[in-house]
Design goal:
Elements: H1 11-14, H2 29-39, H3 43-49, H4 57-76, H5 80-84, H6 93-107, H7 109-113, E1 116-117, E2 126-127, H8 135-149, H9 156-161, H10 163-182, H11 187-199, H12 201-204, H13 215-235, H14 238-252, H15 258-274, H16 280-297, H17 306-309, H18 314-335, H19 338-366, E3 372-373, E4 380-381, H20 404-419, H21 428-449, H22 456-462, H23 469-472, H24 482-489, H25 491-505, H26 509-524, H27 532-554, H28 563-571, H29 576-583, H30 589-617, E5 626-627, E6 633-634, H31 636-647, E7 653-655, H32 661-668, E8 671-672, H33 681-692, H34 695-704, E9 709-713, H35 724-735, H36 764-767, H37 770-776, E10 792-793, E11 798-799, E12 810-815, E13 821-826
Parallel strand pairs: 7-8, 7-9
Antiparallel strand pairs: 1-2, 3-4, 5-6, 9-13, 10-11, 12-13
Helix pairs in contact: 4-10, 4-11, 6-8, 6-32, 10-11, 10-13, 11-27, 13-14, 13-16, 14-16, 15-18, 15-26, 16-18, 19-21, 20-21, 25-26, 25-27, 26-27, 27-30, 31-32, 33-34, 33-35
Length: about 850
């Protein structure tokens, strides 16, 4: 009997398919009535399975109106910061991005990529072109030149401020495309997801007007890459895979979080293999995407050869090799009998092992000049053939620098000595052969050592234990609390598990990707609250699928008043008993369905209201201007930076904690020692040692670094909780994390009961530290509250322990109106020959 030919449903029809039932588009409602009588299915349910015919112009128009409304909502909801304050840049990192964009717009792309910034990380400096992801600068610069070409009088600052809201609107369209691909054309789910992504607080937090950071465009790039990947997987087209690779290039150039995209797509391919859904379309799509995407990503200077050296990229390479072997195996099955297939595979494996041994031997012969053979029966003097890059290893002194490849080197050494006969013979050929084999193995293992370590932040995602303090100190790297989940996801927190269940019950390659995307990001948010930003689009997709499934389940039960519906109801009246049994009828069906349809509408309205509240009250306040609970504004930061730019020398060097380095170099235009790039843990540790040591020791270190001014942030007068005293405990930990700062211990700055205090019970080490003296200098005579004693810190809720602080080597240069920013001048050394 010939096989039944499966009918291919076009994309316009697949949009209305709810289950896996395939119905030829030639069948009409009248023809379905007879089949319903046989299988017990209702007309109403079957009409919800397939809605025949192409979408009308009216439906298309309404869909475009809905998408346009979602885009407008995404843009407008992010403008509270501009409406309530002014057109300004927020946070810390965006100021460096803004400064870099200005440099690129004024001088061009190539000078920007060759730019060496001597005003940061003094005296080391920083090669900006080779240490940034330039996609954000490229985007803002391109938009600026485009608008200027059409005679729009815009400033670079204005373009940078509105990048976040603009790309949030683009993310609405990208989310619609991704959900449409994942659900195989479900327009309802795609539209729900678009509305969710427009106003989900987890995404608003990093895309408000003024948040000119990499994430403001990177989330759009990530969603677009996933959507184009799903399209390439559906079509099996090399052209679609190439467009996905181009989107991946944009993602790589925009944000370091591209590692998530790099590993999620291979994970999806692995899932398809394990669930026996791997097809030739998947092979073509992933092979094309991986090769082109990897080659393009290596053109970014900051990435360079990481795709071939870093362990972060190895899963993608491993899956690429796996699908080559799997496809070749499937090809052999069609050409070779099953009896000879495993024999051929065994011969291939043996040949591969032989090639590895020969290659290791030849490599050892070439590199034999690196080792020397000792006479008189002594063993080899083992000298590493290749030094491992220290930047890829853990910087924690308490954690041993070891990888599995070190064990392989030791094993190769022992095998060479035991079986090479080096201790029993002086034959030079035997020595040379054994030496060459060992040398090749060691060379290969040393090269593999570069791959054997994850980057610091990626390793932190799997385990926060043993992480270096500079990573653990960042607020975004703290574990996510339930309150964060609620405030950043709200309704999506409920729809998320329902969406996963929806994907499980309607399992295919698209829903598998949606589940993997959601569950992996949910897992990593337990370690790092910053990943909620990546979780938000996944929650929107799953929420759209869940809400769409809910409406598809209850809408058929609503009573329609159209004439066509009444006629069909009369036709099917004779089959009432059969339908009740198959459908499980129950009383007040239409009323219950109406309630079930109306309640989610109220919940979605509540979600939008919650999102507006979060955008207005929590995510639109710039860190450069502080707002108190009573609405009072504190503009001390800009006041201090303006004073520094106008009253200090142009070549003056200002020392502060790394949080404020970008502010000083961008707004005050002065040289700084550390900033938010945090690429050199030793240099940051040195700054921490200066602030944690006594004044005399700190002065000597500052003279070595040629420090002119010291800036500290103090919130004791107004109760600002983000000041340097609150961060000081992390400065101590970072200062003691390097060998040069091993003498600094956190216990020295705590009471015997383990308390962190600044009052009279504070340890002498704490009260003598430079940070303590600079913050509380002259503070003992200040009244901060009518009912509190003099020198009462409103942030720590303690009375300062030392009220008569005298400085010997520094002098106060400037203190802002509310004492938030305090600037001190480093005195020059006394003239020993004077007098």
């Amino acid at each position: 009997m010939p096989p039944v030919e499966k009918t291919r449903i076009p994309a316009w029809c697949a949009a209305h398919i709810v289950d896996a039932t395939v119905v030829p588009p030639t069948i009409r409602r009248s023809e379905r009535a007879d089949e319903d009588e046989e299988d017990g299915r209702t007309d109403v349910r079957r009409r919800m399975v397939v809605k025949l015919g192409k979408p009308t112009r009216k439906e298309k128009f309404l869909l475009l109106i809905a998408l346009a409304g979602a885009c407008c909502l995404a843009f407008i909801i992010r403008l509270f910061s501009v409406l309530r304050f002014e057109t300004m840049i927020h946070e810390y990192d965006p100021y460096f991005n803004f400064r870099s964009t200005e440099m690129m717009v004024e001088n061009g792309v190539f000078p920007f990529h060759n730019w060496f910034d001597a005003k940061s990380w003094y005296p080391l400096g920083r090669g900006v072109g080779s240490s940034v992801y330039p996609g954000l600068m490229w985007t803002a610069g391109s938009i600026y030149h485009f608008l200027r070409a059409f005679q729009f009088k815009v400033d670079v600052r204005q373009v940078c401020v509105f990048i976040g809201p603009l790309f949030s609107a683009f993310s609405v369209l990208a989310t619609y495309a991704l959900t449409w691909e994942v659900s195989k054309g479900n327009n309802g789910a795609a539209l729900f997801a678009s509305v969710f992504i427009a106003c989900v607080p987890g995404y608003i937090s990093r895309s408000v007007a003024g948040s000119y950071d990499n994430e403001s465009i990177a989330i759009f790039c990530m969603i677009l890459t996933f959507a184009l990947w799903m399209r390439a997987l559906r079509t099996g087209s090399m052209a679609s895979a190439t467009t996905a690779a181009l989107a991946y290039l944009y993602m790589v150039s925009s944000w370091g979080g591209y590692i998530f995209v790099t590993n999620l797509i291979p994970l999806h391919v692995l899932g398809l293999i394990l669930t026996k859904r791997f097809t030739y379309r998947c092979y073509v799509a992933y092979s094309t995407y991986y090769v082109i995407g990897t080659l393009l990503s290596m053109q970014i200077s900051f990435v360079n050869f990481k795709p071939t050296e870093s362990a972060d990229h190895m899963p993608a390479l491993g899956i690429f090799g796996l699908i080559q072997l799997l496809t070749f195996y499937n090809y052999l099955k069609t050409k070779v009998s099953s009896e000879n297939l495993w024999t051929l595979i065994g011969c291939g494996v043996a040949g591969a092992i032989g090639l590895v041994v020969v290659g290791a031997t030849l490599t050892g012969i070439v590199a034999s000049g690196s080792l020397s053979i000792l006479s008189d029966g002594e063993r080899f003097l083992l000298i590493p053939l290749d030094s491992t890059n220290d930047s890829t290893r853990s910087e924690s002194p308490s954690k041993p620098d070891w990888s599995p490849c070190d064990g392989l080197v030791s094993l190769a050494q022992r095998l060479t000595f035991e079986f090479g006969g080096l201790e029993h013979t002086e034959d030079s050929s035997t020595c040379q052969a054994s030496f060459s084999t060992y040398s090749g193995i060691q060379s290969a293992c040393n090269s593999a050592n570069k791959i054997g370590h994850l980057s610091g932040r990626l390793a932190f995602l799997f385990s926060s234990k043993g992480a270096i303090p500079i990573i653990a100190s960042v607020a975004e790297h703290q574990p996510t609390s339930w309150a964060h989940y609620y405030y950043d996801l709200h309704l999506l927190l409920l729809l998320f598990p329902l969406g996963v269940y929806r994907c499980y019950t309607n399992f295919h390659e698209g829903t598998l990707f949606a589940m993997m995307y959601g569950l992996t990001t949910l897992y990593f948010t337990r370690i790092m609250v910053r990943i909620v930003l990546v979780l938000a689009p996944a929650a929107c997709v799953l929420g759209g699928l869940a809400l769409s499934g809910h409406y598809y389940a209850f809408l058929p039960n609503l009573t329609s008043s159209s004439e066509e519906e009444k006629k069909e109801k009369d036709v099917t009246e004779k089959k009432k008993d059969i339908k009740k049994k198959a459908e499980g009828s129950y009383p007040f069906k239409s009323e219950i369905a109406a309630v079930a349809v109306f309640i989610p509408v109220l919940i979605v309205c509540s979600f939008v209201s919650h999102s507006i509240y979060m955008a207005r009250e929590h995510y639109s306040d710039p860190t450069i201007v502080l707002r108190a609970g009573n609405g009072k504004l504190y503009d001390d930061f800009r006041e201090a930076y303006k004073w520094i730019s106008e009253n200090t020398e142009e070549n003056a060097k200002v020392l502060s904690w790394w949080d404020y380095g970008y502010h000083l170099s961008s707004m005050a235009n002065r040289t700084v020692y550390v900033d938010g790039n945090t690429w050199n843990n030793t240099h940051i540790s040195t700054v921490g040692q200066i602030l944690a040591s006594d004044e005399k020791t700190s002065y000597e270190m500052m003279r070595e670094l040629d420090v002119n001014y010291v800036l500290v942030i103090f919130g004791g007068k107004i109760g600002y909780p983000g000041d340097d005293i609150n961060k000081f405990i992390w400065m101590i930990r970072i200062a003691g994390s390097t060998p040069n700062g091993a003498h600094i211990s956190q216990k020295q700055y705590m009471t015997k009961y383990g308390e962190y205090r600044i009052d009279s019970r504070a340890p002498k080490k704490m009260r003598n530290s430079l940070m303590y003296k600079l913050c509380y200098h002259r503070f003992g005579q200040l009244m901060t509250h009518p009912r509190a004693p003099l020198g009462y810190d409103l942030s720590q809720n303690q009375e300062v322990g030392d009220k008569n602080i005298a400085l010997e080597h520094l002098e106060e240069a400037y203190t802002t109106e509310n004492w938030i920013v305090r600037v001190y001048r480093v005195k020059p050394p006394a003239n020993k020959f004077s007098g």
